[in-house]
């Protein structure tokens, strides 16, 4: 159930409750569009999914929302078909990032899901799930698989029926597939009305840790927070240790936040102090030392940490997914799926099961009151998340070109309006013709190999000719890549000469020359084509020719409509930095550059706040463009589940919106 706020007196009571430091649960306030009392956000879904741990209110946009805004701190109001979850505590308005206003932006289901996530995180922080209401019973079952990119786990209960484990209620922001695995036997507290299963365990005591890890032994730890002189490391999601710069490096000039990043998984030595306390040290860990297995965060679960798997991992673009990535147990029966469909009615949204279903389809399913998951919904392998990541005492991982890409030209220079040297153009056209001839020759030889099967000598001769043609093709590809680079250099030289000519003709009263980027921008019909051209030029300038096979520029990538607009107002130096950062992101080099400070954007400022995800599962990432300067620029981009990238926009340091 939810409460309608329809009078000024009710608005005052709502404001008093939101300010009350003794409030025991989060309150969620939803506003309707202007001119109607019917909300776009799924108010009934909110009441069903979070009504047991939060209160839900509905207020109409207009005079009532203006009155409510006057009674709340600045920027904490609710209006215009949006919603907000207000946490508990002495000062629920201390941090705006913890209580974000969720607009629909044409996708009411996404806004509803965001509010569910916000409210559950606030309820978990308030300790509501540590209580044991009458509806909670202890059950056992088997983990069958994961949904919603690892934020939900499906459990088949021993007594029949299905339940779900929510990431927000376990060890946020740790993904569930770090602590659970398909086929794992599980025990937890089941809330029968919502079918949510709580499997959190109490953190291990110091005595348990000391027995598990003898003095001087090495295990893995997660870097949770970093500053210039300190870092917080976790051996368990709820068991942390604070270390200083001296524990990491003997160099007094080193800064902790340049050696470690939040989300790193590092090897740490466990020290037993004379007082009986435990301490962690990173500075003297050798690469070849044995590493004891990390703790399991859940009963019967796998070790929650793994080397080279940071918390802020990105999807790699290689296709190396193995059998371990399969998250669906084929043993699940049709009966079990049917039971899940009946059980999930009160506990899951439609898009929990249909990751590619649009809002309209999800609403239609909800209206029909039925969910019909098929085994294909769970049988899709999840992409691998680990990426190489440097750390203290660890060797920097280097990505090598795979055989499938070793002979390919990593980048194709698109048409450019600037003229180039005729001799270079002729050479380029000649190379392209020889390339076509080599391909045609290989095709003919392959046809002859199929037809000529009379003698072994004929086959050997034809195979030798085919190998010769392949070598010719490879040489042509190398020459083509070299010529393309030469053409790009000639264009840069021509631009430099034209700029010098303009400068030589200037008089004292002549205006300053126009921006180099503005000059090139005027040559393109639309801003998107210009941006792609500048990124291509930056790639040629940024990546040495010897490294271009290792760091190719993708043939295709996404550009939001706001990216080109966000470049306006930047000077040439800032534009150059922005395009260099774009190259680092698109090629994947950003994962090896600590100065970029790559990390996922969260829905709030707290370390437990969930990552900012789009409806299609894309994760919003943030990298640094400038350092140590006022309003330093940052770049936001979407990292899609398939590994591709969509650049969103350039922002200032304080802008945390996607």
Automatic annotation (TrEMBL):
Entry keywords, A to Z: Coiled coil
Key word Coiled coil present: yes
Keyword Coiled coil: yes
Top-rank taxon: Bacteria
Coiled coil: 428-493
Region named Disordered: 354-399
Protein's UniProt name: Protein bicaudal D homolog
Species, as recorded: Cryobacterium zhongshanensis
């Amino acid at each position: 159930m939810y409460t309608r706020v329809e009078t000024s007196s009710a608005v005052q009571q709502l404001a008093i409750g939101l300010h009350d430091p003794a409030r025991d649960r989060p309150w969620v306030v939803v506003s309707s569009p202007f001119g109607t009392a019917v909300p776009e956000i799924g108010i009934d879904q909110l009441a069903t999914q979070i009504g047991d741990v939060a209160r839900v209110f509905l207020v109409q946009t207009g005079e009532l929302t203006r009155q409510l805004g006057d009674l709340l701190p600045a920027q904490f109001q609710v209006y215009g078909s949006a919603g907000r979850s207000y946490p508990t505590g002495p000062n629920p308005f201390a941090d705006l990032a913890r209580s974000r206003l969720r607009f629909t932006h044409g996708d009411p289901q996404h806004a509803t899901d965001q509010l569910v996530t916000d409210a559950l995180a606030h309820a978990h922080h308030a300790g509501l799930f540590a209580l044991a209401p009458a509806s909670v019973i202890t059950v056992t079952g088997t983990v069958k698989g994961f949904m919603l990119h690892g934020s939900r786990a499906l459990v088949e209960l021993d007594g029949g029926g299905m339940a779900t484990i929510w990431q927000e209620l376990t060890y946020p922001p740790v993904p569930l597939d770090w602590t659970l695995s398909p086929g794992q036997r599980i025990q937890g507290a089941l809330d029968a009305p919502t079918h949510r299963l709580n499997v959190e365990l109490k953190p291990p005591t110091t005595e348990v840790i000391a027995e598990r890890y003898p003095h001087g032994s090495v295990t893995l730890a997660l870097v949770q927070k970093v500053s210039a002189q300190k870092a917080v490391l976790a051996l368990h999601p709820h068991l942390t240790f604070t270390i200083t710069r001296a524990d990491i490096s003997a160099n007094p000039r080193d800064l902790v936040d340049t050696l470690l990043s939040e989300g790193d998984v590092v090897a740490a030595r466990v020290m037993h102090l004379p007082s009986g306390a435990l301490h962690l040290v990173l500075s003297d860990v050798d690469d070849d030392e044995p590493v004891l297995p990390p703790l399991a965060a859940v009963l019967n679960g796998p070790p929650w940490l793994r080397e080279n798997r940071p918390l802020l991992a990105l999807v790699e673009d290689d296709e190396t997914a193995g059998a371990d990535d399969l998250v669906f147990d084929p043993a699940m029966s049709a009966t079990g799926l049917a039971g899940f469909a009946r059980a999930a009615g009160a506990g899951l949204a439609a898009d929990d099961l249909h990751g590619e279903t649009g809002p309209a389809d999800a609403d239609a399913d909800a209206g029909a009151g039925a969910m019909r998951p098929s085994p294909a919904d769970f049988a899709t392998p999840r992409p691998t998340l680990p990426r190489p990541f440097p750390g203290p005492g660890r060797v920097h991982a280097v990505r090598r070109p795979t055989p499938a890409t070793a002979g390919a030209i990593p980048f194709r220079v698109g048409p450019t309006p600037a003229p180039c040297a005729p001799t270079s153009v002729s050479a380029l056209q000649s190379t392209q013709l020889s390339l076509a001839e080599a391909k045609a020759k290989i095709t003919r030889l392959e046809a002859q190999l199929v037809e000529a099967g009379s003698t072994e000598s004929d086959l050997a001769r034809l195979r030798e000719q085919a190998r010769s043609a392949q070598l010719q093709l490879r040489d042509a590809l190398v020459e083509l890549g070299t010529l393309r680079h030469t053409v790009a250099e000639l264009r840069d030289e021509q631009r430099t000469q034209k700029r010098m000519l303009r400068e030589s003709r200037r008089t004292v009263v002549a205006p300053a020359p126009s921006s180099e980027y503005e000059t090139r921008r005027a040559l393109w019909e639309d801003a998107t084509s210009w941006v792609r051209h500048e990124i291509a030029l930056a790639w040629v300038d940024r990546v040495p020719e010897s490294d271009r096979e290792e760091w190719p520029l993708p043939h295709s990538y996404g550009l939001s409509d706001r990216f080109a607009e966000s470049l306006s107002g930047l000077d040439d130096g800032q534009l150059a930095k922005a395009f260099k950062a774009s190259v680092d992101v698109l090629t994947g080099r950003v994962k090896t550059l600590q100065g970029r400070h790559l990390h996922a954007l969260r829905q709030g400022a707290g370390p437990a706040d969930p990552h900012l995800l789009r409806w299609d599962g894309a994760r919003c990432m943030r990298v640094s463009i400038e350092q140590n300067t006022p309003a330093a620029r940052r770049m936001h981009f979407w990292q899609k589940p398939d590994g591709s990238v969509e650049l969103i926009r350039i922002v200032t340091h304080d802008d945390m919106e996607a």
